[in-house]
Amino acid sequence: MKREGQISVNSKNMFPIIKKWLYSDKDIFLREIVSNGCDAIKKLESLRGISEAPEEENFRPQVIVNIDSEKKQLIVSDNGIGMTEDEVERYITQIAFSGAEEFLEKYKEKSEESAGIIGHFGLGFYSAFMVSNTVEIETLSYKEGAKPVHWVSQGEETYEIGDGTRSEHGTTIIMNISDEETEFLQESRIREILHKYCQFMPYEVYLNPHDEERTVYDDQGKPELNEDGTEKKRIVKPLPINDTQPLWLKAPKDCTDEDYKAFYQKVFMDFNEPLFWIHLNVDYPFNLKGILYFPKQVNKLEVVPGQVKLFSNQVFVADNIKEIIPEFLLLLKGVIDCPDMPLNVSRSFLQNDGEVQKIAQHITKKVSDKLHQIFKNERETYEKYWNDISVFIKFGCVKDEKFYDRMKDIILLKTIDGEYKTLEEYPKTEDNKIYYVTDENLQAQYISMFKENGLTAAVLTHVIDPHFISLLEYKNPEQMKFLRIDSDLGDALKVAQSEEAKKAEEEQNKGLIDCFKKYLKQDKLQYQVESLKAQNTPAVILLSEYARRIQDMSRILGESFADQTQMTLVLNSENPIIKSIPNLKEEDQQLVCEHIYDLAMMAHKPLSAEQMSQFIARNVKLLNLVTEGK
Question: What is the pTM of this model?
Fold first, then answer.
């Protein structure tokens, strides 16, 4: 016998909203339905734990997903608690009524196991209408004497409820897929969705399960035969699509390095081994489990995002939710399971929730603690990791002041000699200058000059480093002043001269500068003559640190400040070529001045196409002079 009832909603417009806007990703409906099936099983196990439901021999909790292409149906069935007709009326027809919350409230003092219930049977169930013309429920309660119930609705204001056909306790959701959503009748698409959302659900999930008959082979790979000569066969049971006991649920002491590496490859399809990992296992003041991996940096010049997957009771919620996972931690790869976090949360809720902020702070602290532990106990290993983890640490310091305060003592600077020094250990000049390199190939000439004179510089070649340098100067205004290696030569590279010697050279230096001005015709180029210790270097180009930072800012903003950036050509008066210029013929002076300028520019930055053509032409001319014996 069937009868009609009216679904309890606040507005006639509720169903169109549910169908179109309940979730931003339409495929999430399957996560909701399968999650509800797992909840139903969990409820049944919780009741058995307090002897309020009968035990069953050989009970195998499972959720089965079937596709019936001919009937255009997607069917999800569980063998959980099931529902009576009254419960269907209560939990299904009252939209947004939470059966999970009612169950938890009723049994919270009797069963600790009930805390694993995932979601809210209500709006989650109605997500099925996003892809269906009609949705049916076949259900049978575990309660003795309960009768099977059938419920059906077209996603409007009315439904039908009556006698069902189910013979075993549990619930079956039958979604009659609409013509516009037939992609959800493709096995490959459903498998993809289940893998995305249900890969680690707590009970076995099967897709179109069926036994397979397979041939039995011997050790040589030949089919084994029966007495009558036919091939031996064996029945192979289907495998679940999920892992019900993911690694993060285990105690760290029970996990091997191989377990961690295998899990990493399985989840992230990254066959480069991670550097190391942090296993989170917190019970108080909140429940939090997970594993964060430090991956190798594939691209050394960019900030490459990682992937941190957020789960709630083993159900996938989303990737990279920065309100829970601090933004800089998203450079890592990993999984975080927060059972206290609801499946469907708004960003504004997360931003303003105090518990969420505590979770984020705790994760950050655990990461910094792990890094301090490695630095303290395995300094060489920490240094070996530095090139890969430095991007993450620097980004974290720039983004999070508290993280900087935790990490400042173990921040390393790599020198041009390949040594790693903390900020405290790093050798500075008397006026606290720290020279740095942004391109070891392009600035090779400057690096050679520094090495020849026993000087060092920090290698800071990543795109994050300009921001990091600014942070260090802001935090340590009296102790650190960063200068690029080609911005200031400093007194250490200059030959010490008396005042008399300097005055004697002034007139000669003026003539040298006039010569370069005459032939180079570079209006914005400044000139300087210095006695440098690097005799093999005729000249270098310098660009002030201030001008360089303005230039970098202009690139970021997509604007040009070229007129504000002036370069200085520093001529080395100790170099034999520079000394010989006044004695050359006029046409040879021009050739040498132009060539010295190009060599200095090449050590500073790549030449333009036109400049390179002129440079090659001058090289040919010089070769001709040599072959002619001049």
Answer: 0.77
